[in-house]
Structures are given as C-alpha cells and as structure tokens.
C-alpha cells in the first residue's frame, strides 16, 4: 500500500539529511551556470565537499538559449578537452572552432556534476555573504519565493572554506562586498568583444577577496572586461581554473 504521507516523509527526510550534510562545506558555489558547474565538477573530482546554490528552478544559466534562442553554443580549441572529459558531443565548424547542442551541454554538464558528488540546491538564493575578520567564510541563503515575494523571513547560513561567485553578468555575490565597502568597485562588463572577453574571463578568474573566487562572466564584470556572447570555452576554462586553485589551497 502506498501512503501519501510516506512520499512526503521520503522527500523531507532525504532533503534534510543532505541539507544538514551541506551546512559545512569546503566550497559553496553560487550559480549553476557553465562556470559554476564546471568548477563544481572538478572540485568534487578532486575530493572537495561542494554544493551549488542556484536561485532558479532550472540549472544551466545561460547555456540553454545558445545565441538568441538558437540553441547551439560555440567552443574553441582550448576548451575542447573539457567537452571530451564531460562526454559532450560537438561538431567542428572550422579548424579550432566547434559547435555543441545547448540542451546536451546543459543536461550532460549537470548530470556529470551531480554524479561527481556535487549537491545542487535549486530554488535557493544566496542573499548575502558571511564575512569574518577579512575572510569570506560562508553564504546566507533563503528560498527564492521568499525573495520574490519580499516576505519578511530571515535566512539561514552555510559555512564554507571558499565561496565562488559564479552568478554571471551581475556578479551578484561580490556586490555584497562592494555595498559594505570591502572592495572598491565593480566596473561591470565591457562591450561585446568575443576574443578578448574569452581570454580575460580566464585571466580574471581569481580570489577577489580572501575566501571569495569569481568565475565566468562574474570574473569579467568585477574587472570591467568585455562580454562575449554565446561562446562558452572561457566559461569552462574559468570554472576549471578556480577549481584547480582552490583544490591546491585546500591541500596546503
Ligand atoms: O549567467 P550564467 O550562465 O553564468 P556564467 O557561468 O556563464 C555565462 C554564460 O552563460 C553566458 C555568457 C558567455 O558564454 O556570457 O551568459 O558566468 O549563470 C549564472 C547562474 O547564477 C544564478 C543564475 O540564476 C544563473 O543560473 N544566480 C544569480 N544570482 C544568484 C544565483 C544568487 N544570488 N543566488 C543563487 N543563484
């Protein structure tokens, strides 16, 4: 016999177990877009305890729509090995430039990330950072519907050795440091220039404040570097770079 309340118990018990297990993390990633998920994948593969908090119901960020809703994304040679590592198919467009199906990229990347051991909490918005003595050491979370309806409901807290701002164009998480005067400015992304934007998104992937890394478009937004449109190699390389740097520090 299938009891209705049994379904509820199965969901509540298993969710709460995972939430309790994620209260203390090696790395809390904010945003399940391409750079955040790739970072999560490599961190988990490297043995780190990592969770991603995504405010939307769906994961994938800007992957799904490709360019203007034409659901294809472009990836350059430098990032091809990441597609291979993840088992994502692609077709050469010309030498050194490849096209992948946006739906396959979003679903396969999400699947590989979760199977690597990353817990993704969707519908959870990071509304602030925990900062103590000049070090970012956690995130402040709330349900997205609470934020959307502006209900007066206090949030909860997750402790993490490192936080990654993978929130894309707005650098939502780093904004909290700016508003408190802990960093000087966030210039915002520059005008479209794919080649430069792709190069700089990887260069700008860094620890912007003790304990806080930026990846992907957030890395360019905090550095005033160009946007690049639907080419994604830089996003993947940025996520991998942040993961590698954090793994090194976690082992120190
Ligand atoms: O924007 P997004 O895809 O970030 P990305 O990894 O990739 C950018 C590309 O998609 C594309 C591009 C070039 O290739 O320019 O735009 O830099 O994903 C960011 C994710 O963060 C979530 C948001 O819903 C999206 O899924 N997000 C944003 N703010 C918050 C958040 C927040 N405060 N809490 C939780 N999730």
From TrEMBL:
For this protein, the Enzyme Commission number is 2.4.2.59
What keyword terms does UniProt attach to this protein? Iron, Metal-binding, NAD, Thiamine biosynthesis, Transferase
One GO MF term: pentosyltransferase activity
User: Where is glycine bound in this sequence?
Assistant: 227
Q: Which GO terms describe its biological process?
A: thiamine biosynthetic process; thiamine diphosphate biosynthetic process; thiazole biosynthetic process
Keyword Cell membrane in the entry? The reply is: no
Query: Which cofactors does the annotated protein need, by name?
Result: Fe(2+)
The pathway noted for it is:
Cofactor biosynthesis; thiamine diphosphate biosynthesis
Q: Where does NAD(+) bind?
A: 35, 54-55, 62, 126, 152-154, 217
**What is the enzyme's class at the highest EC level?**
transferase
Domain of life from the UniProt record: Archaea
List of residues binding Fe cation: 154, 169
Q: Which reaction does it catalyse?
A: hydrogen sulfide + glycine + NAD(+) = ADP-5-ethyl-4-methylthiazole-2-carboxylate + nicotinamide + 3 H2O + H(+)
Subunit field text = Homooctamer; tetramer of dimers.
Instruction: Give the matching HAMAP family.
Output: Thi4
Q: Which family does it belong to?
A: Belongs to the THI4 family.
Q: State its role.
A: Involved in the biosynthesis of the thiazole moiety of thiamine. Catalyzes the conversion of NAD and glycine to adenosine diphosphate 5-(2-hydroxyethyl)-4-methylthiazole-2-carboxylate (ADT), an adenylated thiazole intermediate, using free sulfide as a source of sulfur.
Protein known as: Thiamine thiazole synthase
User: Which species?
Assistant: Thermococcus litoralis (strain ATCC 51850 / DSM 5473 / JCM 8560 / NS-C)
State the taxonomy lineage.
Answer: Archaea, Methanobacteriati, Methanobacteriota, Thermococci, Thermococcales
């Amino acid at each position: 016999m299938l009891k209705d309340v049994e379904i509820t118990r199965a969901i509540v018990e298993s969710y709460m177990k995972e939430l309790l297990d994620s209260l203390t993390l090696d790395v809390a990633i904010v945003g399940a877009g391409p750079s955040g998920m790739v970072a999560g994948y490599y961190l988990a593969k490297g043995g780190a305890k990592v969770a991603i908090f995504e405010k939307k119901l769906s994961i994938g960020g800007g992957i799904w729509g490709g360019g203007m809703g034409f659901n294809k994304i472009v990836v350059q040679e430098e990032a091809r090995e990441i597609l291979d590592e993840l088992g994502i198919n692609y077709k050469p467009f010309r030498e050194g430039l490849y096209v992948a199906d946006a739906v396959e990229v979003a679903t396969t990347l999400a699947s590989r990330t979760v199977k690597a051991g990353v817990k993704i909490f969707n519908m959870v918005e990071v509304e602030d950072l925990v900062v103590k003595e000049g070090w970012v050491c956690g995130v402040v979370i709330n349900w997205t519907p609470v934020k959307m309806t502006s209900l007066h409901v206090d949030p909860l807290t997750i402790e993490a050795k490192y936080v990654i701002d993978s929130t894309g164009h707005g650098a939502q998480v780093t904004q909290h440091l700016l508003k408190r005067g802990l960093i000087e400015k966030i210039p915002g992304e520059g005008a479209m220039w794919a080649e430069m934007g792709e190069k700089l998104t990887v260069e700008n992937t860094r620890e912007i404040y003790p304990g806080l890394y930026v990846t992907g478009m957030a890395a360019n937004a905090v550095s005033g570097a160009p946007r690049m449109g639907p080419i994604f190699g830089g996003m993947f390389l940025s996520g991998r770079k942040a993961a590698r740097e954090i793994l090194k520090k976690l082992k120190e």
